[in-house]
Design a protein that fits this description.
The structure holds two protein chains of two kinds. By secondary structure, chain A is of the alpha/beta class. Chain A has five helices and five strands. Chain A has a five-stranded parallel sheet with strand order 4-3-2-1-5, sandwiched between helices. Chain B is 31% helix and 22% strand. Chain B is built from four helices and five strands; from the N terminus they run E-H-E-H-E-H-E-H-E. Chain B has a five-stranded parallel sheet, with helices on both faces. In chain B, strand 3, helix 3 and strand 4 form a beta-alpha-beta unit. The relative contact order of chain B is 0.24. Classes of the chains: A alpha/beta, B alpha/beta. Chains A and B meet through helix 1 and strand 5 of A and helix 4 of B.
């Protein structure tokens, strides 16, 4: 299929909803299909790229930090950025700046940028199609 | 005629307004639009043939293709043979392809 520009709006905070996993899967598939992707991370989703997320052991199940290997969303996004670069397509990840400040998650992984709702409006206007994945 | 790709992500046994999304699908189809109804995450729980009192059978009877994310089905131990008649297991790529084809993709 011809290369298109697709925009996704995410709203869920990390570690809370299956929607985050599905959204990451959709973004990955879009990049693998050769499409350019824009992501606007709003509200809780602004914390997905917070670089200070840390893995932890699981005392309940008796697993060490290494055995638990707890998934971190900032690593998922970093992997998506690497995938985009490898496939020579664009991944423009925009975090809502006010949402970032409210949550104190301004320390992000490299390759993402700060913006606001007007950026989402422009991304949607300039894209071929847009999918909003809202919270409840 | 507009192409609609409705995504249902919620368990109808937990979330009452899933029913409204199904009604939207049927209304759009009756208005002459092309509609596909895609189940993902806990929404696939309603696709079990043994599940009762959900609106999926009504959507199927309306002639709307009902699709279920293969990964969501596998995660929940639902085999293709155990699906409601008219529900087809499909890969998540269909959502990306619908977006790239210009469908109106709505998430619920």
């Amino acid at each position: 299929m011809k290369r298109k520009s697709l925009t996704f709006a995410l709203m869920d905070a990390p570690f809370e909803s299956a929607r985050t996993v599905t959204a990451i899967r959709l973004i990955e598939l879009s990049l693998r299909r050769g499409h350019d992707v824009n992501v606007f991370a709003y509200e809780g989703a602004a914390a997905l790229t917070f670089s200070r997320q840390s893995q932890h052991p699981n005392a309940t199940h008796g697993r060490t930090l290494e055995e638990e290997d707890h998934p971190l969303t900032h690593r998922w996004v970093a992997a998506l950025l690497e995938l985009a670069a490898a496939n020579d397509v664009k991944l423009d990840w925009v975090n809502c700046g006010l949402c970032v400040d409210e949550r104190g998650v301004g320390e992000t992984i490299p390759g993402v940028r700060r913006g606001g709702p007007p950026d989402f409006f422009k991304l949607a206007l300039d894209s071929f199609n847009t999918l909003v994945i809202p919270t409840r | 005629m507009t192409d609609y790709f409705l995504i249902e992500s919620r368990d109808p046994f937990e979330c009452a307004d899933v029913h409204a999304n199904g009604e939207l699908a049927i209304a759009l189809a009756q208005a002459g639009h092309r509609v596909r109804y895609f189940l993902v995450q806990n929404a696939v729980l309603a696709a079990r043939a043994a599940a009762r009192s959900n609106g999926l059978a009504t959507i199927v009877r309306a002639g709307i293709p009902v699709l279920a994310d293969e990964t969501s089905l596998r995660e929940r131990g639902i085999q293709p043979a155990g699906l409601l008649a008219g529900v087809s297991p499909v890969p998540l790529e269909l959502v990306v392809d619908a977006l790239a084809a210009g469908s109106r993709v709505l998430w619920h």
